[in-house]
Amino acid sequence: MSSSAISPTLPQRCPTTSQVVEAQLVRDWRYECSKRALDITASLTFLLLLLPLYILIGVGVKLGSSGPVFFRQKRLGRGGKVFWCYKFRTMVPDAEALLAHCSDLLARFDENYKLTDDPRVTRLGAFLRKTSLDEIPQLWNVLRGEMSLIGPRPIVVPELSRYGDDGARLLSVKPGLGGIWQVSGRSDTSYAQRIMMDMKYIESRSFWFDLRLLIATALVVIKGRGAY
């Protein structure tokens, strides 16, 4: 009998914990670099291409009602960093004060942080919301690195408590201009559903998943589904 026939098969060497961690860090680094490259390229391109529309909307907002062209609000970013999130103004001036003085509207708003048939929305504002054109200024947030093209919803500080133990996971990534929530009903979804979608994205995120969501988001925006 030959020696090769009786020699035991040596087990394959399993990767050590440090090797597994290192491989994951490399994958994360590649993903973050490719994601940031896409964010910069796309946001800068669309900011330049949409500049005439940007100016036209700004003039329309200014002529439609008194007040500033832009609405800005503090939102939570990655690591809990607070940043100014920009949109074209779609509501009448002093909209926050009007909400605070109407208990019925305030109660409905506190439930989902959304209102259907919001009486504070201007005529042009309703169109901008329906077409999602009000969110074009957030491309500036993406270019600055405060947001990403795809990610969880950008939330205001009081909303964080609604996430409970998942709050830390939410703040581990950048909020997005679009995402699962936008292709799955947008404003028609409940708050609990939105949280679930945010967590699903964080668990499943990858460059190709982001790319698929980006295309799906564009199609939903074109159709104007679930926006108000």
Automatic annotation (TrEMBL):
Family: Belongs to the bacterial sugar transferase family.
Main location: membrane
Phylogenetic lineage: Bacteria, Pseudomonadati, Planctomycetota, Planctomycetia, Isosphaerales
Protein name per the record: Sugar transferase
Enzyme's top EC category: transferase
EC numbers, comma separated: 2.7.8.-
Domain of life: Bacteria
Localization: Cell membrane
Ranges for domain Bacterial sugar transferase: 35-223
Organism: Singulisphaera sp. Ch08
Membrane spanning residue stretches: 44-65
Protein's UniProt keywords contain Transferase: yes
Keywords: Cell membrane, Membrane, Transferase, Transmembrane, Transmembrane helix
A GO cellular component entry from the record: plasma membrane
InterPro entries for this protein: Bact_transf
GO molecular function: phosphotransferase activity, for other substituted phosphate groups
